[in-house]
Amino acid sequence: MTLDLTPGPVNVRDFETAARDRLDPAHYDYFASGAQDELTVAANEAAFRRRMLVPRVLRGGGPPRLETTVLGTPAAMPVLLAPTAFHRLAWPEGEPATARAAASAGVIMIAAMLSTVSIEDIAATGATLWFQLYPQPDMAFTESLVRRAEAAGCRALVVTVDSPALGRNERGDRNGFHDLPPDLHCANMREGGHVRQVVLSPHISWADIGRLRSMTTLPLLLKGVLHPLDARLAVEHGVDGIIVSNHGGRQLDTAAASLDRLPAVAEAVAGRVPLLLDGGVRRGTDVVKALALGATAVAVGRPVLWGLATAGEAGVSRVLSLLRTELENALTLCGATGPGEVTRDELGGILA
Ligand SMILES: Cc1cc2nc3c(=O)[nH]c(=O)nc-3n(C[C@H](O)[C@H](O)[C@H](O)COP(=O)(O)O)c2cc1C
Ligand SMILES: CC(C)CC(=O)C(=O)O
């Protein structure tokens, strides 16, 4: 008998290694890569590494409670699943496996418009969903997607605004990977016998946000804001929340790290709408840093894909439970009894 002494993945980074071992290299590259030199991908994580926490001591508050509510949606912790396309490339069942893990963990999954399983079939898992939209120039089609998301029970609409064009992905160019294999398709884009191509349009503007605002009573979030003036315009256009994000470094390479932009956006918004952040969150301490700099919650993209590619639903569950355990530990060590208590002032929180 041989004794297997490998402990299995103990953190998110280990899950990336495990996923890389399992995935077709071109598919691994699709998930892992960023635009061009991938400087923003690296900057997102580096920004978290650069910031150090200053904990408080002797507060005696007992174990932290992680529950929170984001724009009216309750969640077991302030960590959401960022919208990511093409889950069936990572695991045969695709998005429903991810959704079941999110449901078991009690967290919000932002379902991507470009999912490989339809929003109705993802919703059938019972998960708490928000819906991510790339507004399409065909407004009637865009509206039909919004109606489907509403009917499926999605509790917020997340409009991605950092994509007036597709970022230049050179790993994809080298691998010749530009589209889904023929056995997979973007299920929400299906219309009768054919599948619509997504349009990432440079004509998208605030007028479209106005149209979407009047189209739905769901909470409306903009995803991909980095500039404080855009954050202010978002509030003026009746947006309910903002996701500070550079799309995981996949769109404009050399765009600033999300975490580095959070303080300026928080100042511009001045508490009028909640802020979320994504990009480079890999540790519980990363979540604490984002909360301290003004986020209500964070979202994770690639960590979920690494869990999914490694072991399907069980892998995503494990990634979410690792992040939960790390967050609980980090809050305890910071002397905080919950996410709402983490502020820059009170925790002395963050030194740049
Ligand atoms: C493989 C992959 C696919 C993505 N697809 C989408 C998408 O369809 N829509 C979207 O708004 N963002 C998409 N994103 C961006 C994520 O929502 C999120 O902004 C980013 O992954 C956060 O960075 P992280 O991966 O470092 O956590 C995608 C990211 C990855 C890695
Ligand atoms: C096909 C892409 C538009 C999906 C996406 O947002 C991404 O890969 O980052």
Topology:
Layout: H1 12-22, H2 25-32, H3 39-50, E1 52-53, E2 68-70, E3 73-75, E4 79-81, H4 95-105, E5 109-111, H5 119-123, E6 129-133, H6 139-151, E7 157-160, H7 170-175, E8 190-191, E9 194-195, H8 206-215, E10 220-225, H9 228-236, E11 241-244, H10 258-269, E12 275-278, H11 284-292, E13 297-300, H12 302-334, E14 350-351
Parallel strand pairs: 4-13, 5-6, 6-7, 7-10, 10-11, 11-12, 12-13
Antiparallel strand pairs: 1-14, 2-3, 8-9
Flavin mononucleotide is lined by residues 31, 44, 82-85, 112, 114, 132, 160, 223, 245, 247-248, 250, 278-281, 300-302, 305.
Give structural notes.
This protein has 352 residues and is α/β, with parallel strands linked by helices. It has a single domain, classed as TIM Barrel (Alpha-Beta Barrel), CATH 3.20.20.70. The protein is 39% helix and 13% strand. The chain is built from twelve helices and 14 strands. The protein has helices at residues 12-22, 25-32, 39-50, 95-105, 119-123, 139-151, 170-175, 206-215, 228-236, 258-269, 284-292, 302-334; strands spanning 52-53, 68-70, 73-75, 79-81, 109-111, 129-133, 157-160, 190-191, 194-195, 220-225, 241-244, 275-278, 297-300, 350-351. The strands form four sheets. An eight-stranded parallel beta sheet has the order 4-13-12-11-10-7-6-5. A two-stranded antiparallel sheet has the order 1-14. The protein has a two-stranded antiparallel sheet with strand order 2-3. Strand 6 (129-133), helix 6 and strand 7 form a beta-alpha-beta unit. Helix 1 (12-22) runs antiparallel to helix 12, helix 4 runs parallel beside helix 12 and helix 9 crosses helix 10. The model has no long low-confidence stretch (mean pLDDT 96). The protein binds flavin mononucleotide and 2-OXO-4-methylpentanoic acid. Flavin mononucleotide (FMN) binds next to helix 12. 2-OXO-4-methylpentanoic acid binds next to loops.
